[in-house]
Design goal:
The structure holds 2 protein chains of 2 kinds.
Chain A lengths: L10 H17 L13 E2 L3 E5 L3 H13 E2 L2 E5 L4 E3 L4 H5 L9 E3 H4 L5 E3 L3 E5 L4 E4 L4 E3 L2 E4 L4 E2 L17 E2 L5 H17 L1 E7 L9 H16 L5 E7 L8 H13 L2 E3 L5 E5 L4 E6 L2 E6 L2 E3 L4 E2 L2 H4 L29 E3 L12 H19 L12 E8 L2 E7 L19 H19 L4
Parallel strand pairs in A: 1-3, 2-4, 2-11, 4-7, 11-22, 13-20, 14-15, 14-20, 15-16
Antiparallel strand pairs in A: 5-6, 8-9, 9-10, 12-21, 17-18, 18-19, 23-24
Helix pairs in contact in A: 2-9, 5-6
Chain B lengths: L4 H12 L3 H19 L7 H26 L9 H35 L1
Helix pairs in contact in B: 2-4, 3-4
The chains are: A alpha/beta, B mainly alpha.
């Protein structure tokens, strides 16, 4: 006996529809995980990606999907991948170090060759790189995503192994430093004294981090009930606190309101850990200050192999960083070379959020060049920083090359402290970061 | 920064990825319960199950409202204005609805067992 047909969806019809929908989803959007899409460009190009940090992995994922037949090689000797935006949370005791560590192998897409070595020399005239282990790797296209180096030795008396001793903290580089910084901060919370927070001249990774560490230390002191025992100094190298003018103005009012004394034009030049003294080169001459806790932020540069190579800007304010067009991310002199992430010499953009915006541009432009087209995509300098002001509060700052605010969520005022940006930072950004590594956002 | 629906879904997928094993266990329990309950359809107590489920959902909503800030290592004094309270309210509503959906079958199963 046949059932009477009605307008209602039958079970078979539902299954058929669901199957169709799943098939569509499987081939598009973030669900297109299983196969290379039909629009992938066929090529036998050799593509070398230097670095398996956020930028290198995101690029490898995107190019793996966009190209069919390309030989993609990633060069990096680090077995552990670091979620660097979480380091301030480790340094302030909010996260454990293991929360920012994962295996590099778990992130690299299948079909990508991983050379566990570091590039020691770039030879763009011969289209090859030479690794520290002596391998010569030739390429048709090179993507430099090697990150940057933290130059501890640029401060007299400073070295990385001092972090976690003599009241010295430094949030940068790895979770070991961040955890050691939390130990120093904890001791300072108990004992109080003089706290110094430095910010070097020049471009640095996550320029909000020195501010976050300063504000989180002040918060932790209040939480511990020892705020009145501490004297806090924020000591930037220049005459500003933040490149974006609205946020700069906000901080100029916010830090003094929380009891910080701001010492403008105070680049740290030397430290004496034994005496617990720091020396700054001020316009009035050298100034030495005693401290009980100091957050040292050393100057940063591109890795030495880039600095020493023809790929670096040879002069100007970006001297030593990778010379790319700030919009196309294509090298200005070697068209088969692109750069993404901390290593590039552009006005702003040394954050994971910048990588999120840069990686699709560089990958798409490389595909354009490979197909003999002009680079079609442009990076507008987008960068973002959930600037934590306290545990539980943050402001969400997003801006571009013009230092114009470009808020993703128009209903969030970037100069008002809120809980929601904190939740984004503490709960959601790592998910967004992982989606970026997979080339999905 | 422009957002796409695929981008948002990709981020949500990554957010729940660490909980996949636990979600799979919950899903298997739900499917097993559904299978068992389908063999006892005559014993279903739909209205009673709905009432208990709604009560549980409301309870979870209020618990979420009270504890979500602490879950994010924040306190109520960190919440400021419509934005923060609106998001807290929506998140709590989501927790309540999700709890209701997940609890319906176990509650129905308990009611069926009591009758059997």
């Amino acid at each position: 006996m046949h059932k009477k047909r009605s307008g209602r969806l039958t079970r078979r019809g539902f299954l058929r529809l669901s199957g169709g929908a799943l098939a569509v989803l499987a081939g598009t959007g973030p669900f297109g995980l299983l196969s290379r899409p039909g629009y992938a460009q066929k090529t036998a190009a050799r593509i070398v990606i230097v670095g398996a940090g956020a930028a290198g992995i995101a690029l490898s994922a995107r190019l793996r999907r966009a190209l069919d037949g390309a030989r993609i090689t990633v060069i990096d000797r680090r077995e552990t991948h670091l979620y660097q935006p979480g380091l301030t949370l480790v340094a302030s005791g909010v996260w454990k170090p293991r929360q920012v560590e994962s295996r590099t192998a778990a992130h690299l897409p299948r079909g990508v060759e991983w050379v566990r070595d570091m590039v020691a020399e770039y030879d763009p005239e011969a289209n090859r790189v030479i690794t520290a282990g002596g391998q010569r790797i030739e390429y048709d296209f090179l993507l430099v995503a090697s990150g940057l180096q933290v130059n501890y030795s640029a401060i007299e008396g400073m070295s990385a192994d001092l972090i976690g001793r003599h009241g010295i903290a430094c949030v940068y580089d790895n979770p070991r430093h961040a955890a050691a910084s939390w130990q120093m901060m904890s001791r300072f919370m108990e004992q109080g004294g003089v706290g110094l927070f430095t910010r070097p001249p020049g471009a640095i990774k996550c320029a909000g981090a020195p501010l976050k560490v300063a504000m989180l230390t002040e918060y932790r002191l209040r939480e511990a009930g020892t705020r009145d025992r501490a004297e806090l100094h924020y000591l930037p190298a220049g005459a500003g606190l933040f490149s974006q003018p609205d946020i700069n103005q906000f901080l100029k009012e916010h830090l003094p309101a929380r009891g910080f004394t701001i010492g403008w034009n105070h680049p740290l030049v030397a430290i004496d850990p034994g005496k617990k003294e720091a020396t700054f080169r001020t316009p009035e001459g050298l100034r030495t200050m005693g401290y009980d806790f100091i957050h040292v932020v050393p100057p940063m540069s591109a890795p030495q192999a880039v600095v020493d190579s023809p790929l670096a800007w040879q002069d100007g304010s970006f001297g030593g960083w990778l010379e790319v067009d700030q919009h196309t991310l294509q090298h200005r002199r070697y068209p088969n070379v692109f750069g993404v992430g901390d290593v590039v010499g552009t006005p702003i953009g040394k954050t994971a959020a910048s990588v999120k915006a840069q990686a699709p541009v560089a990958a798409a432009n490389l595909v354009d060049v490979l197909a003999d087209r002009e680079p079609s995509r442009r990076y507008n300098g987008y960068t973002s920083c959930p600037l934590i002001t306290e545990v539980g509060r943050a402001i969400l700052v997003e801006f571009d090359y013009d230092l114009k605010m470009v808020p993703s969520f128009s209903f969030i005022d970037p100069t008002e402290q809120h809980w929601v940006p904190w939740v984004l930072k503490e709960r959601m950004l790592q998910a967004a970061y992982n989606a970026m590594l997979r080339g999905r956002v | 920064m422009a957002f796409s629906i695929w981008g948002i879904l990709a981020v949500l997928l990554e957010a729940v990825r660490p909980y996949f094993p636990a979600l799979l266990v919950v899903l298997l329990i739900e499917v097993a319960l559904l299978g068992w309950l389908l063999t006892k359809r005559e014993l279903w107590r739909r209205q009673a199950a709905r009432k208990v489920t709604v009560a549980c959902g409301v309870l979870v909503f209020f618990l979420a409202l009270a504890f979500i800030p602490a879950f994010t290592k924040a306190g109520f004094d960190d919440l400021r204005g419509l934005l923060d309270y609106g998001v807290l309210l929506l998140a709590s509503l989501g927790c309540g609805v999700a709890a209701g959906i997940l609890l319906y079958l176990p509650i129905q199963a308990m009611l069926v067992l009591r009758q059997a």
